[in-house]
Structures are given as C-alpha cells and as structure tokens.
Amino acid sequence: xxxxxxxxxxxxxxxxxxxxxxxxxxxxxxxxxxxxxxxxxxxxxxxxxxxxxxxxxxxxxxxxxxxxxxxxxxxxxxxxxxxxxxxxxxxxxxxxxxxxxxxxxxxxxxxxxxxxxxxxxxxxxxxxxxxxxxxxxxxxxxxxxxxxxxxxxxxxxxxxxxxxxxxxxxxxxxxxxxxxxxxxxxxxxxxxxxxxxxxxxxxxxxxxxxxxxxxxxxxxxxxxxxxxxxxxxxxxxxxxxxxxxxxxxxxxxxxxxxxxxxxxxxxxxxxxxxxxxxxxxxxxxxxxxxxxxxxxxxxxxxxxxxxxxxxxxxxxxxxxxxxxxxxxxxxxxxxxxxxxxxxxxx
Length: 346
Ligand SMILES: [Zn+2]
Description:
Layout: H1 3-12, H2 21-33, E1 39-41, E2 44-49, E3 55-61, E4 79-81, E5 84-86, H3 90-109, E6 116-122, H4 130-138, E7 144-147, E8 155-159, E9 161-170, E10 174-175, H5 185-197, E11 212-220, E12 226-227, E13 230-239, H6 245-255, E14 259-267, E15 270-271, H7 277-285, E16 291-294, E17 307-309, E18 324-326, H8 327-345
Helix pairs in contact: 1-3, 3-8, 7-8
Bound molecules: zinc ion.
C-alpha cells in the first residue's frame, strides 16, 4: 500500500489515547496481510524480522490527543490538498507510523538485513506511556532505538525531562482587618515563586538549552476578609541532562520555604552521544538532517537504549486543529528509516 493510502486509513480510525483497540487490530492485520508475524499485547502491536546479535527498535505511537476546538473539517476524514494530508494525528504521529510500517515491510523483504529489527506500535503515549512500558516486558533489550515523531527529518538526539512539583505555603489565618495578627500564606507563596523565577542556571545544554521552572497553577484563601492560612501552587520543571530531575528537585527544595511535594519525577531527560552508532547511522542515511533537541516528550523516556527521534512532520503542528503532514516527507521518512537500519547493522 502506498504511503498516502496507508496514512489516510490510519487517520480514519479514531485512536484517542486509551482507545486504541481498533487501530491496533488494523496495524496487526495489515502486517499479517503482508506476510509478517505480528503480536498484540494489550493494544500494543509488535513484530520482529531478521536475525543476529544486534537488535534495533523502531517505535511509534498509535494514539492521538482528543479533538481540540477549531477544526474546520471532520478530523477523522483525511483531506488531501497541495501535497498534504490533513486529519487528527496526521502529524503526531500517524505520518511516522506510516513511514515506519512501510519501511519495516520493505526491510522484511530485503535479503541483506544483517540484524534483528523490532517494530513496536505503542498505546497511550499522549497520556501515561503505559504502552511502551508494557512493550519493554515483551521485547528483549535493544541496542538502539529510533522513535518516530515529527522532527522535519532532523535527527533529535536529546530530549528534556519533566518534573511536576506542588508547593504548600503555610501561614496563619486571621481577620483581614488586623493583618499584623496573621501570616499571609499568599505572600509567602509569592516570595517562593519570585525566588524560583530568579534562579539562574550557568550551564546550557548544547541542544536543549537551560532548564525552566514555570508556575502553572495557584490557589489560596477562603474568604475575602480572611487572611489566607494556606496557599498552594504548582510548577512545571523542564530538566536537561546537565540539570536532571533529582538535581533540580533538590535545588528547588533548598530555594523554597514552602513544603514541596513531588507529583511526578519519572520523566527523565535523555541524550545520545554523537558518537553512538545509531546517530552515525542516521547521519549517513540522512546527511541533510540536523542534530537537534526534541522540544516535547515521547516514549523514548522508557526505552533503555541509545536512541534518536526522527520522523516526518513539524512539532508545532502537533496537538493543533487542522494538523497536516506533507506526503513527500512521509515517503522520504520511509526510505530513510530503511537506510538507518542498514547503516546501523553495517
Ligand atoms: Zn507524538
């Protein structure tokens, strides 16, 4: 099946995170119809070809975010215009999925495959990454991974991590007519927020820059005439390999006077050295691809191997109404995935 047709079929099947049964069955059947022996685990699909000591993983996700407001077409009826396909998930990441499936089918037919390749289509990447975690129970440890996400055919070798922290500033409530008799927890929270905003980080990561701390939620107080005794706020902390999650959390705890609760610290930053075989293979396969940092998160977090993120499409298109992808880029990505595999096993 041509890339364009396959992509349209994938877009037509709704696969909002947590509801991947139908698309999982489609991918399973499609691989089987092409003479391969896929397996399903939960709604994840995986399949291997080739043999040898070296194992390379090709991974992409089956799910999409929900339909957001602003679509001016049916998000599940892919529209083709000016060499682009528009539909929910076309860019994130059914374009990469299409290219990977087509590359995998071609690799299965190739007589000079010198290692083992696993293709893994994971569920729930957009919500909790459960799919890839389930898959790592089924797939042996791999030597390297290629994760299919929109990178405009650039080679992303680093990705920021994420920690989410909740702060509770405690004061002493009292009547607002006598402010000196209470301790205003909102003021304490503001002090902490200011201190966190003014934290300076000396070292910028070559591809990811400096870490960031952004206050995203705040709530405090109970009544207009009561001094607030408690104020809570939440920060989104983007980490880098130079300032990984634990280091950032420790630094934040030292800085803030509020009580700090770690809501999430499992999404750690990732980085693959430029001298790793997978990076060299990708550069040979796609010399025009730039080495970049990936601006979002992806399933790579839970793959314990050197990896690159590579795929057709543009990250800024992800999670937006009327997301589209260029058909030519999807076709090209399919060819490059094949080349990466061959180069890796050389
Ligand atoms: Zn994605």
